[in-house]
Write a structure and sequence with these properties.
Number of strands: 2
Structural class: mainly alpha
Mean pLDDT: 90
Helix content: 40-55%
Number of domains: 2
Strand content: 5-15%
Largest sheet: 2 strands, antiparallel
Order of helices and strands: HHHEE
Strand order of the largest sheet: 1-2
Distance between the termini: 60 Å
Bound molecules: zinc ion
Shape: rod-shaped
Number of helices: 3
Low-confidence stretches: none
C-alpha cells in the first residue's frame, strides 16, 4: 500500500516537473506537484517564466529580450 502512495506522489511530482520545465522551473514544479498535487500544478502554471532576457549594453541590467527600450536607464536597446 505504501508503495502505491510512493508511485502516486512521484507521478504528481513528475506532472509538476513537466509543467514547470517549459518555464525553466522544473525543480520547483516537481516539489509543488509532490506536496500539493493538483493545487501545486495550478501554482506552477501561474508562475512567471524565469528571466532569460538580454543584458542592456548601457547599464548592464537584465531586460526582456523583446524590449526595445531599457526600463532601467530608458535608453534604446536597438
Ligand atoms: Zn539600461
Amino acid at each position: 500500500m505504501e508503495f502505491l502512495f510512493l508511485i502516486l506522489f512521484l507521478f504528481l511530482g513528475l506532472i509538476g516537473y513537466a509543467i514547470g520545465s517549459g518555464k525553466g522551473r522544473g525543480t520547483e514544479g516537481f516539489f509543488l506537484g509532490l506536496f500539493l498535487g493538483f493545487i501545486g500544478w495550478i501554482i506552477v502554471a501561474c508562475l512567471s517564466k524565469v528571466e532569460t532576457g538580454v543584458m542592456c549594453p548601457h547599464c548592464r541590467s537584465m531586460i526582456d529580450e523583446r524590449a526595445t527600450v531599457c526600463p532601467k536607464c530608458t535608453r534604446a536597446v536597438r
